[in-house]
Amino acid sequence: MATQFYTGSSLDGFIATPEHDLGWLTSRDIDPAGPMHYEAFAEDVGALVMGASTYQWMLDHLGEMGDRWPYEQPTWVFTHRKFPEPPGDIRFASGSVAAVHADAVAAAGEKHVWLVGGGDLVGQFADAGLLDEIWVQFAPVTLGAGAPLLPRHLELELKEVARNRDFVCARYDVVR
Ligand SMILES: NC(=O)c1ccc[n+]([C@@H]2O[C@H](COP(=O)([O-])OP(=O)(O)OC[C@H]3O[C@@H](n4cnc5c(N)ncnc54)[C@H](OP(=O)(O)O)[C@@H]3O)[C@@H](O)[C@H]2O)c1
């Protein structure tokens, strides 16, 4: 089973503004049943991993998600912070990503591990040789600055590309 980074990005390679705003992304048009969209991807997700800023964004926007944590799958959050009692099946971790990856793969069973972001955390998995695929929906916008998509030099192989309304969607394998 694969370890996948699936994310939206600006054309110039940022996944959030410097203020962690995602309005430039969530305001765009995408077909939920269209090519390479989240719903089909999410069916095969068995475990999630994210960093502290991404988790904080989720907590700050729970109201837009029906006031409930949207994932039933186990989720690992990398952080040094002390967060309040989590709203779902959330485990906090820090340090090396390898042990968490092994636990997430075991929890995911036949399904995939979704690295939600941010980019440097995904880079830590890549550094350890644990990143298999990158799926990016490129929004028609440049931001000029912000949270980087994946601040590493990785060689990739383009496996699939599609247009979904406002977005160019691309899927890559990481070449090891
Ligand atoms: N466009 C999209 O689809 C998309 C997808 C995902 C995320 N996002 C957004 O992108 C932004 C990402 O923010 P970000 O670049 O700051 O990345 P992040 O990975 O969400 O958060 C970074 C933080 O994670 C913690 N962390 C990372 N590696 C760690 C490790 N090995 N051990 C312990 N803690 C570790 C550290 O937090 P501490 O402060 O606790 O040390 C670090 O400051 C967020 O605004 C998020 O909402 C957008």
Automatic annotation (TrEMBL):
The protein depicted here goes by the name Dihydrofolate reductase
Q: Name one GO biological process term.
A: riboflavin biosynthetic process
Sequence ranges assigned to domain Bacterial bifunctional deaminase-reductase C-terminal in this UniProt record: 74-152
Annotated Pfam families: RibD_C (PF01872)
> PANTHER family, alphabetically?
2,5-DIAMINO-6-RIBOSYLAMINO-4(3H)-PYRIMIDINONE 5'-PHOSPHATE REDUCTASE, DIHYDROFOLATE REDUCTASE FAMILY PROTEIN (AFU_ORTHOLOGUE AFUA_8G06820)
Name its species.
Nocardioides cavernaquae
An example of a GO molecular function for this protein is: 5-amino-6-(5-phosphoribosylamino)uracil reductase activity
Check the record and name the InterPro entries matching this protein. DHFR-like_dom_sf (IPR024072), RibDG_C (IPR002734), Riboflavin_Biosynth_HTPR (IPR050765)
